[in-house]
Amino acid sequence: MKAVGFRKSLPIDDEKSLFDFETSLPKLEKRDVLVKIRAISVNPVDYKVRQSAAKDSELEEPRIIGWDASGTVESVGENVSLFKKGDEVYYSGDISRPGCYAEFQAVDERIVGHKPVNLNWEEAAALPLTSLTAWESIFDRLRIREGSGSGRNILIIGGAGGVGSIAIQLLKKLTRIHVIATASREVTRNWCEKMGADDIVDYNDLIDNMSAYKNVDYILNFADTLGTWKEMAELVAPQGAICGIVGATENVDLDLLKNKSVSFHWELMFTRSMFHTRDMISQHKILEQLKILIEENKIRSTINKSFHGLSADTLKKVHRLQESGKSVGKNVVIF
């Protein structure tokens, strides 16, 4: 099968940063489905892995990255019960296994969902990673209950990104929480408004721009944990909660949260699949719930730009866009 991969962590403009190659079809484990991929989307984790996974030495075999896809089930492992050949699916995948920059991918059925019938391939591929991250951040980490939140508010730092875009929608459709999103450019402000945010504030000078709010009950940080740590500690309400998805390159001062008895939570969408947690099947269930919400037109795809063709040249273009920091919503590649 055709695939795109890398052997060495190189700048994206380097000819060998990503390259086309041929490889064997993946072998199925007992609970795997083999998916013929129709579309994928690219996330920040893609270029971060490409930049860091082979800094010191060249890999013997090319590494295939990519963790968002939609496609058709080609075959199933012997213990698969949730899917059959021909099913249309969408999923994010497992960061410890080969990714979706390929014609086919093997993925555990417990982290796969049936594709919403009212979405095309590229619209569906834009959703899994960001939707799972947003859902787990809101409902698993912050433990916000569906239907709750009247009189409470939440600040989303990075509202126009892929995760922020879906988090705004989930909060507006499934809770009563007042949603404040950060955005600093006209295009990102317009995007957050389109997603349904109640208020939009400039990311720069966050404390001053949040002066209308004495405190916020919850903070979702999808952009810069370290750079906004002091601002979050000041803005969060006593006994509030913060959830972050971006690792800190330096130590943060947890004592800033102590007097307010604030809880801090990490969210990594890959945790369940990496460690085969007891509740690994939760991601299948979340994707199935999301499917219903989408088919009821309560949640929309966050696709923004489409690219065409499984090739290193195409994926380099998308990586450049992602690395620029100017990406809005999701970028999708149609095979």
3D architecture notes:
With 335 residues, the chain is α/β, with parallel strands linked by helices. It has 2 domains: 190 residues, Quinone Oxidoreductase, Chain A, domain 1 (Alpha-Beta Complex); 137 residues, 3-Layer(aba) Sandwich (Rossmann fold). The chain has 10 helices and 15 strands. The protein is globular, with a radius of gyration of 20 Å.
Number of helices: 10
Major sheet: size, sense and barrel closure? Answer: 7 strands, mixed
- The SSE string, one letter per element, is EEEHEEEEHHEHEHEHEHEEHHEHE
User: Strand tally, please?
Assistant: 15
Shape: globular
The residue fraction in helices comes out at 25-40%
Q: What's the CATH architecture of the largest domain?
A: Alpha-Beta Complex
The radius of gyration computed from the alpha-carbon positions, rounded to a whole number of angstroms, is: 20 Å
Overall pLDDT, averaged? 96
Distance between the first and last residues' Cα: 13 Å
Class inferred from helices and paired strands: alpha/beta
Total number of domains: 2
Poorly predicted ranges (pLDDT <50, ≥5 residues)?
A: none
Which range does the strand content fall in? 15-25%
CATH homologous superfamily title of the largest domain: Medium-chain alcohol dehydrogenases, catalytic domain
CATH topology of the largest domain: Quinone Oxidoreductase, Chain A, domain 1
Supply the CATH class of the largest domain: Alpha Beta
